Amino acid sequence: QVALQFPDELLAxxxxxxxxxxAVTGAEMYVLGxxxxxxxxxxxxxxxxxxxxxxxxxxxxxLSPCRKLPVLHIFGKQPLDVGRCTEAFxxxxxxxxxxxxxxxxxVYAHAMxxxxxxxxxxxxxxxxxxxxxxxxxxxxxxxxERKFGRQFLVEAAGGLQDYAMFYVGAEGLALTSFMLxxxxxxxxxxxxxxxxGRRETLNVNRALMRRLYLVERARDAGVVGILxxxxxxxxxxxxxxxxxxxxxxxxxRSYTLAVGKPNPAKLANxxxxxxxxxxxxxxxxxxxxxxxxxxxxxxxxxxxxCNPARxxxxxxxxxxxxxxxxxxxxxxxxxxxxxxxxxxxVSLITGRMRATHLCDPPSSQLPPSTALACRDQTRALAEIxxxxxxxxxxxxxxxxxxxxxxxxxxxxxxxxxxxxxxxxEGCEQP
Length: 430
What we know:
The protein has twelve helices and 20 strands. It has helices at residues 14-25, 44-49, 82-92, 112-119, 173-181, 204-220, 236-249, 264-267, 299-306, 369-373, 377-384, 386-393; strands spanning 2-5, 29-32, 54-58, 71-74, 100-104, 126-128, 130-131, 144-147, 150-153, 164-168, 187-191, 196-199, 223-228, 253-257, 275-279, 296-297, 345-346, 353-354, 417-418, 421-422.
């Protein structure tokens, strides 16, 4: 039993592909259509519903490693004019000793071998990245980069910052993630659809300033909503537990929400939440929250806001697995600081004082039952639930039930018809 996962633009060919696959392999094929989260991620949950033993993922992919099922990626082969791409590269990098790393969208990976044959004889310091599906075996060697399903070896003494980046593909989330992660490298790109090469004019500093502003919003937040944006990427359960512990130690309350693909209408239902943090793959984590009622941050930005031991170094992380224990960018939570010894901080947005120290995790022992009996039930619930606390602070809390105060009366017949023309309303003659 094999699950075939197609993006929306390829669903028209799903039936024919499934029929041919069944005829060739003899296996039972199931077509996965609308996915709960981004189509670039493998939908392992939907595949497990049909007891699939493997998944064939068609179309663009983020190449995030999966937890259980074996996956075969079929990227497709979008046309690429290698000659025109070579000319654009020469125009952008006239110096033959330029140090350049070539990246590409997965749909153009089939043409990278031909492009390498064209450029390597002229540019001795050029590096072509390789696609890697899943985690590569063994530890990384010095100078080796393993990010976003790409793998390449940097041989320069100064490291990756001595290189420029050349991306083959259209503008999109993948390019944005590359530019924010490797923000010390100048970027250029070649769009195969338009046949034009350009130096990327995206102001990375402005983009980083926007993300750092969201970090300040996260520091001011009292209630944080953890959005589950993936159920298939390896390590998502570990990072959820890590974020809950981090928020608890920082004195913030949290909700864990599974709402599928987030949109402004869905998240506007949680008015008590001050900031949302999205746990998703590297490409879908950078959600533009300008249209949302509350800002949406990444796990790395939440760590910058709540973990005093993590400082901004200029390196931006979009893969939440880099924050987990054992990863190269993992930072242990510092010990708790007594409230009397904590150094207060001032919010750069509101100008108010706020606490930035970590406290001890709360005890799991319940208070005595006599103490619960003496407390007001509504206030006790407000201390536990952020939603109840938010509702208590509002002046209007919904319709009052007034149980036992409304007189009993017989049911009467209401109006019939549609709102613009009830049956008991007279029609005006023109």
